[in-house]
């Protein structure tokens, strides 16, 4: 479980803090998606939890251990993947992973087979003894994932993990995260790929200018998002606009009409159009996607 | 593999460290062989030979070991720190203090092994050529002095890596530190001696000794001057007590230079992101 308790961070004495007092928790067996514009504070939040930056105020608790005052126990529960993974370029992947795993107490004869297994699991089979400096961006991401998973952490911090991965990598990460969730891990996933976040996350936290705007369960997000009706008529639609404008705000493009926030259900509109003699070719209810909702939400936040 | 062992091996394997040790040892051996040739033709005693070797090694290694410390510190910590590579370790169950201490110990141990091998080789050549060896006390003193230099310059690189955020700035600052302490210092000392006048050589030497306490790059020279009771590569025999060169001063200066730069770095590692 990852808990942010009144966490704030200022990098400079003047200027806007990177994080204003922040309260958030990622529960066990949950994937929490973190979305926000560049500079919103997502990376600062994740790096604070990884123990890489020191909070200006407040605490981060990992399975109850403070990342600053009880770092060893707190860090033992964490796996972190950076947005731009950076490793010693001259080291061979298996050697480096074994070295890093050594900090988690994975040493001795069983360490190397375990490390090689993790590298294969993340898709680096055949590259175990390559130097990390020769890896492509996607391979570095996979290696970073291996470093995060090698100690079987219960809390995972993924900063733009999906960036730079090929479709196969994205599919692997998706299934890996769902497995981790099933096993009871807490996963904090920051991403600009809002569609992926929408598909994966149990809850979505929207961050803007260092503030947490809201945390929405996915179901609540679906119901709170804007709805619209898309209607396509077959043949002339003269007069349809008069009726449709009584249902909601209408935009027309040829014989295709879009009604934002309709006051009636799709079947009622269809029935009325047919009753008035129009030939209805298609009626579809569309929900605003996370991206539109996100922009609407942060515009509202000023 | 144990993380500390990995860091140690990385320090020892660093190409710059190996190259420096090879170059310095090559230079030391050349000077040694040429010097021994000259000494044997002038009928020098065993004591003269040992004094020459200790002074020469103090001067040669004393000049190059700071570079060794800088390169080893850059390879084991500085570069990782400024490029962000260190974060892949810092996110693991290790405190900031433990991490920097472990890397510093790896640096010191790697430097100790390199210096010991280099001095051992010189001693071996000396033995083969003259059946004489460097006196045990002088060998230990020289070894310890060189280790102080490596630790001091290594510690300075550790410290700089917490003040600068790019490899260029870090390398540049380390080079400036080396130039100031190892090269410009000589000019300052000579100017000082000339300015204070040559009529009172003890006064000029006292000023030089006092100044050298504050310079880690001159530490090996101070130690060899104390051990051999002579200055300027053994050319000027002077009782060290007459110029303020004391065992206590050497120990305090060495202890401070060994730990102060590192402690500064460790403090910043704990208090800064």
Question: What brief labels describe this structure?
Answer:
heterodimer; A: 302 residues; alpha/beta; Rossmann fold; Alpha-Beta Plaits; six-stranded mixed β-sheet; four-stranded antiparallel β-sheet; 11 helices; 14 strands; B: 273 residues; mainly alpha; two-stranded antiparallel ribbon; 10 helices; 2 strands
Overview of the molecule:
The longest helix of chain A is centred in the middle third of the chain and has 16 residues, at 167-182. Chain A folds into 2 domains: 2-222, P-loop containing nucleotide triphosphate hydrolases (Rossmann fold, 3-Layer(aba) Sandwich), CATH 3.40.50; 226-300, Alpha-Beta Plaits, CATH 3.30.70.980. The mean pLDDT of chain A is 89. In chain A, a hairpin with a 2-residue loop joins strand 12 (249-253) and strand 13. In chain A, 35% of the residues lie in helices and 28% in strands. Chain A has a 6-stranded mixed β-sheet, with helices on both faces. Chain A has 11 helices and 14 strands. Chain A is an alpha/beta fold and 302 residues long. Chain B is mostly helical. Chain B has a domain at 3-177. Chain B has 10 helices and 2 strands, in the order H-H-H-H-H-H-H-H-H-E-E-H. Chain B has a two-stranded antiparallel ribbon with strand order 1-2. The longest helix of chain B has 38 residues, at 46-83. Chain B is globular. Chain B starts with a helix and ends with a helix. The mean pLDDT of chain B is 83. Chain A binds chain B through residues 11, 50-54, 71-73, 75-76, 78, 80, 82, 85-88, 95, 98-100, 102-105, 107, 111, 144, 147, 151, and chain B through 1-3, 6, 80, 83-85, 87-95, 271-273.
């Amino acid at each position: 479980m990852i808990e942010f308790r009144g966490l704030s961070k200022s990098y400079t004495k003047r200027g806007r803090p990177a994080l204003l007092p922040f309260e958030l928790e990622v529960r066990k067996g949950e994937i929490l998606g973190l979305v926000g514009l560049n500079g919103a504070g997502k990376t600062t939040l994740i790096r604070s939890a990884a123990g890489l930056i020191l909070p200006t105020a407040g605490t981060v608790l990992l399975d109850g251990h403070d990342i600053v005052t009880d770092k060893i126990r707190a860090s033992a529960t964490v796996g972190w993947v950076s947005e731009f993974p950076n490793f010693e370029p001259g080291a061979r992947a298996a050697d480096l992973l074994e070295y890093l795993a050594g900090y988690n107490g994975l040493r001795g004869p069983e360490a190397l087979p375990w490390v090689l297994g993790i590298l294969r699991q993340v898709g680096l089979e055949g590259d175990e003894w390559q130097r990390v400096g020769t890896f492509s961006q996607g391979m570095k991401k996979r290696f970073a994932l291996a470093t995060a998973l090698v100690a079987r952490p219960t809390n995972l911090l993924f900063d733009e993990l999906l960036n730079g991965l090929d479709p196969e990598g994205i599919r692997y990460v998706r299934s890996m995260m769902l497995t981790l969730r099933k096993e009871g891990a807490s996963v904090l996933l920051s991403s600009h790929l809002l569609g992926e976040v929408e598909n994966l996350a149990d809850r979505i936290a929207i961050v803007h200018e260092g503030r947490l705007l809201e945390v929405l369960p996915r179901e609540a997000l679906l119901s709170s998002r804007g709805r619209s009706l898309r209607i396509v008529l077959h043949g002339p639609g003269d007069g349809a606009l008069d009726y449709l404008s009584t249902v909601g705000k209408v935009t027309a493009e040829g014989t295709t009409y879009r009604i934002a926030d309709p006051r009636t259900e799709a079947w009622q509109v269809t029935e009325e159009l047919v009753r008035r003699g129009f030939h209805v070719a298609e009626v579809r209810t569309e929900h605003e996607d996370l991206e539109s909702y996100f922009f609407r939400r942060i515009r509202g936040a000023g | 593999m144990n993380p500390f062992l990995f860091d140690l091996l990385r320090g020892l394997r660093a190409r710059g460290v190996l190259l420096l040790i090879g170059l310095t040892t090559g230079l030391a051996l050349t000077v040694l062989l040429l010097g021994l040739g000259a000494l044997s033709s002038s009928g020098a005693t065993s004591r003269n030979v040992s004094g020459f070797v200790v002074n020469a090694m103090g001067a040669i290694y004393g000049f190059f070991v700071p570079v060794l410390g800088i390169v080893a510190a850059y390879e084991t910590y500085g570069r990782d720190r400024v490029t962000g590579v260190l974060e892949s370790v810092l996110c693991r169950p290790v405190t900031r203090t433990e991490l920097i201490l472990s890397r510093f110990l790896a640096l010191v141990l790697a430097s100790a092994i390199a210096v010991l091998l280099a001095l051992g080789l010189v001693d071996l050549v000396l033995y083969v050529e003259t059946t004489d060896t460097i006196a045990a006390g002088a060998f230990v003193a020289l070894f310890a002095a060189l280790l102080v230099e490596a630790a001091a310059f290594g510690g300075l690189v550790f410290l700089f890596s917490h003040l600068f955020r790019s490899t260029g700035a870090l390398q540049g600052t380390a080079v400036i530190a080396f130039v100031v302490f190892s090269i410009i210092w000589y000019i300052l000392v000579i100017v000082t001696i000339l300015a204070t006048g040559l009529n009172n050589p003890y006064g000029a030497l006292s000023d030089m000794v006092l100044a050298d306490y504050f310079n880690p790059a001159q530490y090996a020279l101070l130690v060899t001057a104390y051990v051999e009771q002579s200055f300027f590569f053994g050319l000027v025999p002077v009782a060290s007590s007459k110029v303020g060169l004391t065992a206590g001063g050497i120990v305090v200066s060495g202890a401070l230079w060994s730990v102060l730069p590192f402690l500064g770095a460790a403090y910043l590692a704990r208090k800064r992101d």
